[in-house]
Amino acid sequence: MQNLKIQFHLLMLVLVLSGCGSTNKIGKPDTGYDPEARLAALGIELPSPPQPVANYVNGVSTSNNLIFLAGKGPRRADGSEIRGKVGVDVTIEEGYEGARLTAINQLAVLKEMLGNLNRVKRIVKVLGMVNCDPSFVDQPKVINGFSDLMVEVFGDRGRHARAAVGMASLPRGQAVEIELVVEIYN
Q1: Which domains can be identified in the chain, with CATH numbers?
Q2: Residue 7 contacts by C-beta under 8 Å, 6 or more apart in sequence?
Q3: Looking at residue 83, what DSSP letter applies?
Q4: Most buried one in 4, 16, 71, 110, CB count within 10 A?
């Protein structure tokens, strides 16, 4: 975990020094803005997006440049999931990793919808749900796994409004479920 934090800080330093993440006068990303290159630098390969498990779609785009992504959970490439109640069956650290895995899954959905993550203007809002016992109060620490990766990938464009709440249960017993709203460039 410490090594991951060091890598994150080094990446952020490089991005700040290179001026990545700024926009030009017409509001389009500068040529240095490349979330897909950041993913590659982090060693993250996006999986095929998880498909809906019921009667809904992965995301809906609106005419005012917003995409609303349906909730996703911590599903691994092999189809297995991180399941259980955080604070009981799952540690905070495992929940954090589950939220990070969920972020990767949501990025895969975004890429499929947009064709290229360079079209992301901003991560606007995140709703993080943690499967936990009623006495558990560290939901923000768990959902930081999602938020931290959004900032690693998108820089300041990844900073977002957020809620991190506890749930009595989640579908299939998954440890976390996260939905988000994203603003895009046309």
Answers
A1: 2-49+57-184 (3.30.1330.40)
A2: 42
A3: B
A4: 110
